[in-house]
Specification:
Layout (H helix, E strand, L loop, with lengths): L6 H14 L3 H9 L3 H8 L23 E4 L4 E4 L4 E3 L1 H9 L3 H12 L10 H10 L16 H9 L5 H8 L5 H6 L3 E2 L4 H10 L1 H6 L21 E7 L2 E8 L10 E2 L12 H4 L5 E6 L1 H9 L4 E4 L8 H5 L5 E5 L4 H15 L5 E3 L10 H6 L6
Parallel strand pairs: 8-9, 8-10, 10-11
Antiparallel strand pairs: 1-2, 2-3, 4-5, 5-6, 6-7
The structure holds zinc ion.
Length: 372
């Protein structure tokens, strides 16, 4: 993760941005180039390598084998329910998804930049339907995350002594801080350097400037000395959240980007097939704490944050522990979250409150525990 600051990765990121301009048709082609067997593995179904097998599609109770994979594993067909197609069609048929939903799901599974579909109409509609607290004034036509610019900010903002002292004081280890590439705003002039290098519009589009900023007079959204938590997706930075460490400052300690869609913290654990157990935490510091306690985790930003259908589906087949705060909002949210997950066949365990009286995962770590 920390490698994102080195130059070869920045070059790769720029190449990636170029690829993003190529458009949706190329995405469809790239996804359909996946083998049907590989997609079957992602869906958790075993498909025949030769001959016929029973149809795995829901709704087809296949007593005689009528499903086959053809065309060097690029095409499938069921003679019973008369369905056929390629990789994306298989996801649509098995998951009951629309074309766009299937593409988004598949792209996330293989680590392709799914962000480019984040404003797809189906997903947007869904967020409005299920969200209890829709984010205020989030631009629904948001540009894709600027990995290069976010990477530059993190590269120029190493963790300082004050930030390291604060986090070590909360029992987090230097290894964990390095793994999550935690940074710290050196001075606000770092934003001026970014404006000079990338231009005002690009820095503004990244959400790094306050609402009233103009090219002649702009102000960074994150204060000096604030800790910076980069959000990675497919190992690229898609979002940054800041936390002030100065106690006398007014308002929320957590600062979010201006006019950018909020995301899950450490979302890559959702799509990593090698991770069998994953915890859902409240916020970044608890994610770091859970990871240090031996459990890979991702974080909801704000307790009312929702998981998309795609995100929930990627939890299928994993052991899921709910490690939200052990207080009444945390318990309440844990209960609604379990119901949301179960709709998709994901059974999650709510960890009961530790006997030592810890109110959250970081408390639990600070009590001297080494495992959760
Ligand atoms: Zn069938």
């Amino acid at each position: 993760m920390t490698a994102v600051v080195d130059r070869s990765v920045v070059a790769e990121v720029e190449h990636h941005d170029l690829a993003m301009c190529m458009g949706m048709r190329e995405d469809t082609q790239a996804l359909n180039a996946l083998g049907v067997h590989e997609v079957g593995n992602l869906l958790g179904i075993k498909l025949p390598t030769k001959g016929m097998a029973r149809c795995p599609l829901p709704g087809h109770d296949d007593s005689t084998p009528s499903f086959e994979v053809r065309n060097q594993g690029r095409h499938w067909r069921c003679y019973g329910c008369d369905k056929s197609g390629g990789a994306i069609d298989l996801v649509m048929a098995f998951q009951g998804m629309s074309f766009l939903e299937a593409k988004t799901w598949l792209a996330a599974k293989i680590g392709m930049a799914s962000s480019r579909w984040s404003s797809a109409p189906s997903r947007r509609k869904q967020q409005h339907r299920i969200s209890t607290t829709p984010p205020k004034s989030i631009d629904t036509t948001e540009t894709p995350p600027d990995h290069t610019l976010y990477g530059e900010l993190i590269a120029r903002s190493p963790l300082l002594k004050s930030g390291a002292d604060y986090l070590l004081g909360r029992s987090l280890s230097p290894e964990i801080l390095a793994r999550f590439a935690i940074g710290q705003m050196p001075t606000i002039s770092v934003i001026k350097e970014l404006v000079l290098r990338f231009g005002f519009e690009r820095v503004e589009a990244c959400g790094l400037l306050t609402k009233r900023s103009t090219p002649d007079s702009y102000w960074p959204i994150f204060p000096q000395d604030a800790l910076l938590f980069p959000y990675f997706e497919a190992s690229k930075i898609v979002y940054i959240q800041a936390r002030t460490i100065i106690t006398h400052e007014k308002g929320s300690r957590w600062r979010n980007l201006n006019n950018r869609r909020r995301r899950l913290y450490n979302a890559d654990v959702l799509t990593d097939p090698s991770i069998r157990r994953v915890a859902i935490c409240e916020g970044a510091i608890d994610v770091l704490s859970a990871t240090q306690l031996g459990c890979e985790a991702f974080g909801l930003v704000g307790i009312s944050a929702r998981l998309s259908d795609t995100e929930i589906m990627s939890l299928r087949g994993k052991q899921v522990d709910i490690l939200l705060d052990w207080d009444s909002p945390g318990e309440e949210r844990a209960s609604t979250l379990r119901k949301e997950l179960i709709r998709f066949g994901v059974a999650a365990t709510r960890k009961s409150a530790p006997r030592d009286g810890s109110k959250d995962v970081n408390d639990f770590l600070q009590q001297g525990n080494t495992k959760i």
